[in-house]
Write a structure and sequence with these properties.
Shape: globular
Strand content: 25-35%
Radius of gyration: 21 Å
Strand order of the largest sheet: 7-11-6-1-4-5-12
Largest sheet: 7 strands, parallel
Distance between the termini: 49 Å
Number of strands: 17
Structural class: alpha/beta
Helix content: 25-40%
Number of helices: 8
Bound molecules: flavin-adenine dinucleotide
Length: about 325
């Protein structure tokens, strides 16, 4: 039996983001043996179709139009709705990224459907497809099932493992030409902030600094540790507010949500708003001078000490590996 499930492949600077492959894996579960169809939207994107297939999609539909060269909610929803009308899927999976968070409610309202947003797990249990999603800033989890209509969910990056890439998988990559009506917003230019190293929201290792880092220069040892581990640097709002680093690094309720394999919190007290952005990390290491700091309550490993002594020692040890 099973159902057909569409997956939106998210493209950034000409490449598919990892969350697209995780979405394919989630879609495989949702399809329950049915077909998983990748959807790519952009100006000239069909060349990326094979990569989605090698991660488990059966076929890919590329919606190409020069008006879709940049993401706009209007353009993407017109494109995605055209595919949905054509394919009549039983499921739709999108990454819970900035793009996904913006687009998915618009699509749900057009489909007059529900939406399970920010799912961290999907599994088959007791004859139902059960989605798990964090609530109350990550303090609890709720389980959701869809009782009728299309199964529409966004999935949090870095939580659902993608399938192993198999270059030998083959499938059809077709293009769908869509007439994109006048867009209400048009992106003329994208000015990117210069960022160093790995993308924070997709990093497998995050080394984060708080007010305990004391200055902009205080972030240097953290950057070195992150670079040795192939990870990214993050921060608490305390550090951002104190101007030690840019707000684009902020992790938490009002910042980015990250779920790396390893999160190293340096000089961060562990306020609930910070925990909301990192407490689902697979392994948490906390370095803090204060043995009573709240961060130790969520840490798998706690080091009571001065971060300016501990971080360089860790860096030296990791360099030896
Ligand atoms: P502090 O609480 O000042 O902690 C600094 C820590 O560093 C202390 O525990 C101290 O013991 C330790 N320390 C000092 N020196 C050293 C040293 N040399 N070595 C080791 N440890 C040392 N915060 C976020 O992070 N993200 C959010 O998204 C966010 N959103 C918010 C939204 C709202 C509506 C509100 C009200 C607050 C929000 N906050 C957020 C702020 C949050 O409440 C905290 O104020 C903030 O997280 C504190 O940052 P901090 O842990 O770096 O600083």
């Amino acid at each position: 039996m099973g159902r057909k499930v569409l997956v939106l492949g998210e493209i950034r600077e000409g490449s598919l983001r990892n969350v697209s492959f995780e979405a394919v894996a989630a879609a495989r579960t949702v399809a329950e043996g049915g077909e998983v169809v990748g959807v790519l939207i952009g100006d000239s994107v069909s060349a990326l179709g094979q990569e989605l297939i090698s991660y488990g999609a059966e076929r890919v539909i590329a919606v190409e139009n020069e008006k879709l060269a940049q993401y706009t909610p209007d353009g993407y929803s017109q494109a995605l709705m055209s595919v949905i009308k054509e394919e009549k899927p039983g499921g739709l999976i999108i990454g819970h990224t900035a793009l996904g968070k913006d687009l998915s409610p618009k699509i749900a309202s057009k489909l007059n459907s529900g939406l399970i947003s920010d799912a961290v797990q999907v599994e088959e249990a007791g004859g139902n497809l059960v989605f798990t999603r964090p609530i109350y800033s990550g303090k609890a989890f709720e389980k959701k099932i869809v009782s009728e209509g299309i199964i529409f969910a966004t999935i949090r990056p870095n939580n659902i493992a993608s399938l192993e890439k198999d270059e030998n998988r083959t499938g059809d990559v077709s293009t769908l030409s869509v007439d994109i009506k006048d867009l209400r917003t048009v992106i003329k230019e994208v000015v990117r902030k210069a960022t160093e190293g790995v993308d924070l929201s997709e990093a497998k290792v995050v080394v984060s600094g708080g007010r305990g880092v004391r200055s902009e220069e205080g972030f240097e040892p953290l950057k070195e540790l992150a670079s040795v581990l192939g990870g990214a640097v993050g921060a608490s709002r305390g550090a951002c507010d104190a101007d030690y680093c840019d707000y684009s690094l902020q992790i938490g309720q009002t910042g980015k949500v990250v779920t790396p394999d390893l999160y190293i919190a340096c000089g961060i007290s562990g306020a609930i708003q910070h925990l909301a952005g990192m407490s689902n990390s697979k392994v948490i290491v906390a370095i803090n001078k204060d043995p009573e700091a709240n961060i130790f309550k969520v840490a798998d490993y706690g080091i009571v000490g001065d971060l300016f002594e501990v971080v360089p020692m860790l860096t030296e040890e990791f360099k030896k590996l």
